[in-house]
Amino acid sequence: HVINSQTTNTNRTGRLPLPLRKESQIEGSQSEQDRRHQTSTQSQPLEKGGQHSIMMNLRLSLFSTLALSTPISSAGQYLAFDAYGTPLEIGDNEEAYDQNQNHAGGVSPTISADHVSLRSVGNRWSAYALPSTQEIYPDSVLQFTFTLDEDTVSGFQSICLDADKELTGPNGQCFALTTTQGWIDNMINVAKRTDVGQTTHHSIPIGHFFTGPVNYLAFLQDSDGDLTAKGKGNSTISNLRLVQMDRNKLNVEIGGQAQQLENHQLSYTYKGGKQDTSDWLMAISEDGYGVQINGNQWKALPLNSPYNVTHYTILQLDVVVTEPGDFHAICLDSNLDLEDGGKPCVSFMTPRDNFFNMLTTEVVANQHKTLVVPYGVMMGLLEGDSKMANYIAFVQDNDVGDKRGGRTTFSNIRIYEENRMDVKIKVFEVNVTIPNYQESFTMASSSTYVQDSIDHVMSVSAGGESIAMYGNSFKRLKLNEPFEVTKDTMLKFKLDIPQEAELHVICLLKSNNARDGRDDCFAASGIDVTSSSDSYQKIDPLTRTGGSREYTIWIGSYFTGPVTHIGFAQDNDKAYTSTRTEGESSYSNIEIYNLPRLNIGLDDSSFDIVNNQIWYESTSQDNTPIRDHLAIVPDDGSSITVHGNIWRAWQLIPAMTAQELGDFVVSFDYVLQEAGEFHAICFEDNRELGDFDDPTDNEYDPKRCVMPNEFDKGSNKVFFYNYEPEVGETHRYVVNLGKLFDRFYEWKYLAIVSDNDVDKSVGDMTVSNIHITTSLTSCLKDTSYLFQVEDCTIDNFLAGVKTKMAHYSCPGDDPLLELMALFDATWETDVYREIEHICRASYEAHEYDFAKMISSETQVVKEFIDGGTVLNYERDSEGSSLAKDGAGIAMSEQFAESHLLKWPKHHALDHCDIGAAMCCWIDSRGDAELADNTDICYVNMKASKRTAHVADGYSIYGDSGEGAVNCHGFAWGTDGGSVAEALKGNALFKVGFVDNFYRGLKGNVEQVPGAPMCGCVDRMPVVTNAGCTKVADDTSVVDITYYPNVGAFNAKFTMGSITYDDCGDLNSYYKTLVGAESADSDYMDTRIVGDGGCHGAINSFLAGKGLVKSD
Asked: What is the mean pLDDT of the segment spanning 11-20?
């Protein structure tokens, strides 16, 4: 190997030097054949940004290109020897080296004719006096070429420089070039032996081994045994030079600063025992950025100044192992003895022997590898820990044979502190910073079992919110302040899995390891995760490769207690991969919080209930495990939403006694989004439905539950019933439980029931704004007051009362509770009925009964509505007269704009719960044909059985083909005290008797078979369209007066102007009254289905009978 630079040195004798090529100071012995091979196959420089590329075939010699200087001429035979640039002639006068070693019958070595070679045959210990004493300096290097033609017998070949001719003593040194008897203890054994037939070139830094004056050059060829054996051995030494060379320094970067380490190579021991082959030295490349070890060497270089190693210290280097030894390592140590359990060292290749702190993925022979070693982490240094490093040591251990095996090149060495981002999480609404000190932990049953690949350090995003893991890793982070997990504590995080490993786990630890006596580790991904285990709890659904999912885990249902560390485990034991570097995951947006507490209003304040959800009635009733079916409480605690089959309870701590509650009233809002079998809210003294002393529910059990909805009509005797809202309808319940409860001693549990046993995923309800009033009294019961409303609806009436409550500075502001107290009501509907009664009473003075005017026979109007009487049957074309038959209609019309026309008593018009009605005709008794404006889908005769005169039955029509049909309707909404409700008789008269029948002798008659001619929409045929008439009185007012002496209200209605207008289609207009998203609006969509909607409506109806209409 040729070092491609030249230097000119001034030698210490003052003589002019010859041009020299500077080379690294290592004894390199390499055959010509090996050297040529390595030169031809040498790999290209490694192209790495900002780093130096090292090409190091460091069995070095200068002799491939350098010629010896010309010696001074001499008449006799001599051996040329260049000493520091001065040519010397060593006379051909052999002397015995180390007495009595030469073979008596042997032949003296011969010098070649060109004076450059000395050849020795057989056992010879030959010394030659130097023409002048030569000084050996610390930087002196002996260079020569050695050729072995025949091995000795149990011997060796050596070259020596000595002050005398004795082997022993400190004033010289011999260097064993090759040996057939093993290690030569009293000589320096060169790193590379020469085989028979090989020529090797040597450059020995002899100044490293001794200094001082020398007078002799000796060449020893030792062959022991009989006379034949002593004749063995044939070798040649040539091209002798003694030079001074600056020893290359090692360029490193430490703490961001470029430094040069002196090439002062020291032996590195292990627990006081020698490991290093001190005969050999490491080679530092000419540019100083690389160092190569050949053979068994444990070498250390002093740092220029001590380096303080911390948790964040990184040791970075490039490494190539071209010939593996027993193991290979690099160390930072405070001294020259490896005594701390091997901790100062990191091993990166262990072909034959295990060594300390092995990297998870070993370096592969003959492959360049850049190692970024989290050195401080691997040393186990934590927050505040540090250790001092005074030396960097390079270890290549090889105890096989003559220890010459092994070759490693280190380059581009950097030691620095990594600026590692701290981790940011949220704990109970507080942003918490966790120092990024990564400790190992284990999930194994043995706390000493190491699962972590220590060198696999988690990375943290710039903002600190995301933690990424690569390869096998078990790391934990210590919290500055522990937090406490209680029954209602939750863990939330986002998990991304770019590459799934065997196991992905997050832990909330109270000690060093996961097996800490509680279930605090949670597996949300992993090839091997099939169920929960002793080490972790499986969290469904698992996230697979390429997936991303946000998890919310009720950890308080698994364990309670302190958390001091957060652990992250990504297990890869090479079950599915060739190395442990595979596997990648990231955890982000980690948050610890308590489930929002339920907020319950209590008189003028409120209290919270810890959101620790437990089963009600029994575990078999509730959907379990509860943690997978949590009721949802928002951050403000104002509501509870449950999905699916839920029997859930919350405990009040402490319980509220019956004495504390008094004659208490409970109010809450309720909405059912999806119907189950039944739905209830309970105010319990225990967790048993009904009597806890008797497991059988019966009518004598104390009732504790209000049931807003029941769809599976059973014999449920332990519930209170009242108003049942439609699906999607929001209703406020106010109930005086103090009146209803008996044998009641304390309120201990709040329970929510959404029962559905057929499909436990079905059912969706929300209860909100729960409020307890312990002492309900009326503020205004002794006060006379008056207020006016434009429309006497329930909402307007309550608003008027509320205004008066504010005017008289009442302590509360809830008019419904005020009227509950005033009317001594049990349910809110009691109040609503009172308000409607008050409002309706105000209209009676303005009513006109048009049915009596049309005919003195009371049955005429009723039968006409059902499609009967001569009004429907007779035809003007056959001699009848509509003008005469309907004269009573004309007489009644004069009151249609000045009076409230009375709503007829008729089965088709009773209980129009959604506040809409219509008329449908299929013929005309007049001259004009019936105007067709709709299609009939079907008629459900069960809904109109008194008209159809059958208990059940149906007629299926379709989108077309049934002939002309005309439908027209009107709507007033669901408030029973409104002016619109009072005008519904006007609307019926206008639509059914005037505009479509008598006026202009239009003559629309006869009902769809099986249905009334006019009726509430639920009793009419399902159709595609219907016209619409709106009746209003926008100028009327109602004056309401409260008389405290009798404790009653009186209402006076002042009529305005009644108007009639076309309102387009009935369905659209109805939505403006009740809201497009209301349950009543949804129901109207099932009665007036729009063009093309019959097929779906028919199949929906038939599905309830197990039938399907064909296309």
From this structure: 30
Q: Looking at residue 22, what is its pLDDT?
A: 31
Q: Are strands 1027-1032 and 966-971 parallel, antiparallel or unpaired?
A: parallel
- Cβ-proximal residues to 471 (8 Å cutoff; 6+ apart), any chain: 360, 361, 453, 456, 570, 572, 579, 580, 581, 582, 583
Q: Dihedral through CA 692, CA 695, CA 701, CA 707, nearest 10? A: 90
pLDDT of residue 936: 95
Decide: 591 and 494 in contact? Cβ < 8 Å: no
3-state secondary structure of 408: strand
Q: How far apart are CA 809 and CA 377, in angstroms?
A: 70
pLDDT digits (tens, 9 = 90+) for 275-308: 999 889 999 998 999 999 999 999 999 999 999 9
CB atoms within 10 A of CB 285: 22
Place of tokens 């020795």: 120
Q: Are 194 and 109 in contact (CB under 8 A)?
A: no
User: In terms of C-beta density within 10 A (0-12 exposed, 13-18 middle, 19 or more buried), how is residue 290 classed?
Assistant: buried
Run of H or E including 885: helix 882-885
DSSP type of residue 206: G
Q: Which phi-psi region, left, alpha or beta, contains residue 565 (left: φ > 0; alpha: ψ -120 to 50)?
A: beta
> For residues 174 and 95, what is the distance between their CA atoms, to the nearest angstrom?
16
Question: For residue 281, which phi and psi values (nearest 5 degrees)?
Answer: -125, 155
Q: DSSP of 153-180, one letter per residue?
A: SS-EEEEEEESSS-SSSSSEEEEEEEES
Cis peptide before 654 (omega within 30 of 0): yes
Give 770 or 9, the one with higher predicted confidence.
770
Q: Could you tell me which residues are beta bridge partners of residue 651?
A: 749
2: Cβ contacts below 8 Å, ≥ 6 apart? 21, 62, 64, 65
Q: Which two tokens stand for residue 6?
A: 């030249």
pLDDT at 56: 38
The H or E element containing residue 728 is none
For residues 122 and 1068, give the distance between their C-alpha atoms in angstroms, rounded to a whole number. Answer: 122
pLDDT at 233 over 50: yes
pLDDT value for 960 = 60
> What does the alpha-carbon distance between residue 960 and residue 981 come to, in Å, rounded to a whole number?
34
Residue 17 pLDDT exceeds 50: no
36 Cα distance to chain centroid: 58
Instruction: List, for residues 1063-1081, the tens digit of each pLDDT value.
Output: 999 999 999 999 998 889 9
3-class secondary structure for 577-644?
CCCCCCCEEEEEEEEEEECCCEEEEECCEEEEECCCCEECCCCCCCCCCHHHCCCECCCCCCEEEEEC
Strands 489-499 and 547-553: antiparallel
Dihedral, CA of residue 890, residue 891, residue 893 and residue 894, to nearest 10 = 130
Kindly report the average pLDDT of the chain as a whole number: 88
- Compute the distance between CA of residue 907 and CA of residue 1018 in angstroms, rounded to an integer: 12
Confidence of residue 63 (pLDDT cuts 50, 70, 90): very low
pTM: 0.71
Q: Do residues 672 and 727 touch, judged by C-beta distance below 8 A? A: yes
In the numeric block, which tokens belong to residue 81? 């020897």
How far does CA 317 lie from the centroid of its chain?
34
- Residue 820 in contact with residue 812, Cβ under 8 Å? no
- Quick check: 944 and 1012 in contact, CB under 8 A? yes
Rounded CA gap, 552 and 558, in Å? 13
Sign of CA dihedral 574, 578, 581, 584: negative
pLDDT at res. 62? 32
Instruction: Give the length of the chain.
Output: 1111
Q: Is the peptide bond before 131 cis (omega within 30 degrees of 0)?
A: no
Task: Please tell me the predicted confidence (pLDDT) of residue 266.
Answer: 94
pLDDT of residue 26: 37
Tokens 């998990």 correspond to what residue? 495
Residues 6+ apart with CB under 8 A from 364: none
